[in-house]
Backbone:
């Protein structure tokens, strides 16, 4: 019955607790002290601070004189005041070059993306004029190039088309687009002001990779309309309706359009390939869209191709952005749709903008404040909605070109904006003969870069669950819809977190011979179990969602230990040591787990011992005790597993004779 | 610039890393070994096992001969086969006493609860006849007393009344009640069969306490109809419509009813009080309802009170449960409502049944298998829906009486069932003159016990967030509706888990003098920071939801360290040691955190060191490395913080001269 002294005992290849484990005697053990007292208010305020101000934005203001504080505050809200005074001619030269480069990309893209959103092409150019100016004043990224983006354009168009037809009711459609843009901006700015920016973290990398690939395919499929020259095309987005529409309208296919489209597609893809192989030749792919537009326009004009079945943009209005605040509709039947569209395009464009900003900030080793960026992007869209712009953000492709072209500050956005202004004022008639098929080719080339196969493979290799989430986003977007595909994928990601909390790991620790280190016996094969001790590490906060599981699992560990004992006809278990370093918190249910566990094991003549409970956990157990020392007692509380083992072994030996009787009294289950 | 050798350095009251920290030399350090290789399939199967079979129900079958296996399987599905053979006359005597006691409670409660659900009173008695028999065969609890319960009755009635009026369309209402019961049973059994029982864990203790108190108030308010003798009463449940209805119908109040109600209410509450003070007198409160029914019925009969405005139950049908499978409606407009009602009453009654079963099992030290119980309760309700019963489960109050009366096994349920059978066959005419007001008083007395003020206070003391969740459930149930109140409360509980994951704790560790133990410097005031080392412990799995926060927070720790250094005009930070014992997992986003962190700190001339990464974390980092040792390297990987500090200090000293040059090259930010 008693492990010591019985020659047959051979637990963990040891006859007894190894002597080095006993080096620490009871006098030497270190007490687990109560954490310093803090009031509820102090605890709440520190929690709220970590929740909403993890970056501690007020730190820089501390201890500064009032005047300095005001300057810092102005610089905080208008980053241009921070970098403006140090701006130099050298920097300006770089910014002019990069600004002109992105303008050459922005003009054809602006027209193309506006068409993707079923908006008049000119709105795309308007959107490349005002928002970049706003961002230059408010934004804290040096590399972000602002303008309309493919995904937000796609979603805006497809969501609004659910209720309003852009062909039969173009004014209402435009009004709803501006209203959605307003709500998108309002939502983005609110996230920043309320410091709820962490919401966009729930669009994980896996989701974004799947979603972007799906969106790229959807967007490319939409371009089949212009690439094949079809006139009667489905307004739906899904793979199946689009393919049905394409093959039901074979008689509308125009070979002239197809040939022209293929030529420019090959040209653009080639330019992209060159720039990817030699990053120094970035201007090849950056300039290719504008060059394609110019060549194709000249070609159409020269051979009067529009009469041979090649559709062209047609007459465009001249002049700068007209005001549009009178077009915002805050009432009527479509308000709900406008709000919903604003929310979804808002969060999507915000995610893209923040991700781009962070990527380049990490690359160039400066910092981008997420919440501040949200305010900047949000305000930019609110102002945009007043000035005939639709949803804009920092674009992946355009920012990459901007960075490659040597942009040094937000001035490159101003240069781009000015170039677009000149275009709007004087060059619009030139686009009259631009064929739609070239715009389609430009979009396809742009979005193809969103399909990231190596990243998908990396996820497959690393985490199968993430891979499933990615596939869900991908297929959801292709077969159902952008919003629902994303929603299901986010739901799956959250489910994973909940499952992890519901089924926290508990592992058995063993002693690494010759040390007082205790590690997982499944991971470290040399780790040995000590007779009489079951050492378990709980690796998650304990709460209502997992107490039932933990209770069952810990009792199963104990039963397994006893079964092993039974085979050897001994009954050695005296102490269950719970290593609590990883239990960052318990709630009221968690407290009851300890109570129930204690009751259950005490019935078996076993004691529960806690090792290194953290401050909050200790506090709650103490409070739950109400002074009767049921859960937290000096003699069942240790700072390390080693000290617990040493101290308890010493005690057990002292009580050996008493224990023997006690052990026999316990039924041998 | 260099911490060692500069006399001004005085970090953490030490001039240097204390000598005891250096006792462990590099030769002695223990390697972090790679975890044993497991295939994806092995990992998946072990995960699924922990997810769905944490109790390992097949363990007992292992290594048994086939015949024994079959016997065990039969016993597994029909627990009666397990305890039946050992059943004795002594046990039977106890069970008869307790069975009769709960029957005396079950008859008036059955009639009352059926009225609460707007069902004919007889259905309440039917429901106390068949389901207890089914449970006796399938159930594994010895103390559960089965029958209709107040909360499920309330919810069933209020949800069905939303679409169908029990007064104007009683047959349809009854059909929907049976159909809902069928779906409730199906849902409960499915949860058990699919081993998804952990879903009910999401109704945490805090939610249940708030919800039950709210439900008790709602139920009591409903009784004002019979207690005041009002005939025109609102069909709604909320506090406001009920109180409006009560005070708009003052002219309907009947003083005779009120007087009678008050007398019996006082009598019942007194009986309850006596039993609570002296548990031995449990029979006082157990018998009181039946006594009240008998006395009041005699009284009404004697003085013909029904003619004085006291409403009575009226003629009841005689005979056993008629079959009702032909009344189940699996089509038509109300199918959705029936399914929804079934789901909600199913989960509520299941929660009550499981909680009661677990409570008494813990009290008497036997085990109740949650998933098996779900199958038993589910099957009981499916069978019930075929035999004119509505939703039943193990009832709190009735089981407590059962246990107090000395019940030893499920046979007490059989005895109760037989008593109810006799009542149904022969005694129904006796209830004709039972006044409704007494039934109301019985319900009020029963549900008042559901309001648990001490438990609410305990929650307030322990966890303020749980308290808010509790209040949400309470006020939600009172002012909105049972389902929505519960949904919001569950949502809040899940939000808490998500917030904990989004904002994991990171704490700075310091050395406890004279040991190689490292603990939180905020908790252990004697713990000292070591110059050159920033030791952080991350206390949560790292995933998409928290990488942004962790990145910012860790960089802020580093900046704070550097600022403290700046004040002393030194630049000592060399190593950021991340203690990873509590990081139970990383996902693909988590891996990228390490990469970004490494880039960010390497720019500052600081190295990241990992201590004790767990098996899964190591595996993923290794895979992400693809052999180029970027994240996981021998020299930045240690088993304990102490070994990391010792080994790195030794190395730094060796490289001191080289380091000095290096340190000067780093700009002093």
Residues:
């Amino acid at each position: 019955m008693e492990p010591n002294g019985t020659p047959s005992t051979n637990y963990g290849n040891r006859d007894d607790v190894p002597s080095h484990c006993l080096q620490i005697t009871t006098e030497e053990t270190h007490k687990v002290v109560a954490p310093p007292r803090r009031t509820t208010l102090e605890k709440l305020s520190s929690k709220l601070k970590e929740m909403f101000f993890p970056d501690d934005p007020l730190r820089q203001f501390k201890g500064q004189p009032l005047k300095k504080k005001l300057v810092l505050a102005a610089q905080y809200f208008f980053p241009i005041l921070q970098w403006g005074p140090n701006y130099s001619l050298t920097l300006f030269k770089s910014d002019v070059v990069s600004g002109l480069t992105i303008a050459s990309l922005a003009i054809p893209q602006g027209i193309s993306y506006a068409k993707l959103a079923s908006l008049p092409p000119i709105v795309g150019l308007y959107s490349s004029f005002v928002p970049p100016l706003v961002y230059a004043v408010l934004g804290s990224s040096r590399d972000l190039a602002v303008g309309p983006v493919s995904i937000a354009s796609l979603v805006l168009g497809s969501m609004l088309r659910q209720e309003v037809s852009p062909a039969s009711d173009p004014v209402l459609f435009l009004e709803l687009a501006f209203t959605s843009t307003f709500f998108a901006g309002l939502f983005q700015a609110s996230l920043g002001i309320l410091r709820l920016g962490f919401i966009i973290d729930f669009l994980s990398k896996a989701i974004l990779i799947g979603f972007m690939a799906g969106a790229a395919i959807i967007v490319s499929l939409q371009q089949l309309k212009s690439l094949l020259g079809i006139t009667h095309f489905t307004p739906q987005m899904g793979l199946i309706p689009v393919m049905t529409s394409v093959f039901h309208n074979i008689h509308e296919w125009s070979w002239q359009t197809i040939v022209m489209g293929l030529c420019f597609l090959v040209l653009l893809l080639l330019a992209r390939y060159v720039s990817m192989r030699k990053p120094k030749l970035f201007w090849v792919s950056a300039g290719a869209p504008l060059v394609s537009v110019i060549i194709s326009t000249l070609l159409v004009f020269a051979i009067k191709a529009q009469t041979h079945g090649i559709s062209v943009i047609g007459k465009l209005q001249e002049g700068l952005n007209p005001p549009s605040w009178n077009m915002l509709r805050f009432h009527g039947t479509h308000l709900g749709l406008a709000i919903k569209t604003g929310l979804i395009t808002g969060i999507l464009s915000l995610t893209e903008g923040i991700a781009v900003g962070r990527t380049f900030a990490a690359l160039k080793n400066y910092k981008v404040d997420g919440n501040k960026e949200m305010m900047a992007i949000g305000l930019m869209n609110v102002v945009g909605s007043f000035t005939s712009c639709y949803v804009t953000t920092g674009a992946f492709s355009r920012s990459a070109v901007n960075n490659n072209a040597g942009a040094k500050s937000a001035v490159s956005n101003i240069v781009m904006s000015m170039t677009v202004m000149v275009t709007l004022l004087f060059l619009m008639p030139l686009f009259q003969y631009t064929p739609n098929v070239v715009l389609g080719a430009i979009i396809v080339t742009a979005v193809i870069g969103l399909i990231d196969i190596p990243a998908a493979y990396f996820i497959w290799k690393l985490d199968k669950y993430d891979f499933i989430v990615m596939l869900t986003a991908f297929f959801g977007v292709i077969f159902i819809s952008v919003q629902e595909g994303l929603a299901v994928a986010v739901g799956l990601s959250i489910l994973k977190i909940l499952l992890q909390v519901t089924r926290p790991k508990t592992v058995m620790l063993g002693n690494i011979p010759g040390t007082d280190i205790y590690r997982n016996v499944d991971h470290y094969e040399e780790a040995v179990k000590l007779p009489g001790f079951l050492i378990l590490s709980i690796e998650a906060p304990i709460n209502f969602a997992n107490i039932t599981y933990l209770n069952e699992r810990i009792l199963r560990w104990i039963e397994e230990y006893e079964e092993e004992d039974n085979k050897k006809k001994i009954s050695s278990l005296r102490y269950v040591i719970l290593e609590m370093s990883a239990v960052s918190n318990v709630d009221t249910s968690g407290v009851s787990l300890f109570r129930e566990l204690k009751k259950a094991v005490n019935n078996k003549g076993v004691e529960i011992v806690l090792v290194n409970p953290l401050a909050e956990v200790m506090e709650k157990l103490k409070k739950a005790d109400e002074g009767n020392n049921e859960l937290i007692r000096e003699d069942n509380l240790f700072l390390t597993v080693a000290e617990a083992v040493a101290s308890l072994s010493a005690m057990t030996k002292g009580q050996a004779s008493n224990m023997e009787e006690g052990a026999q009294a316990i039924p041998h289950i």
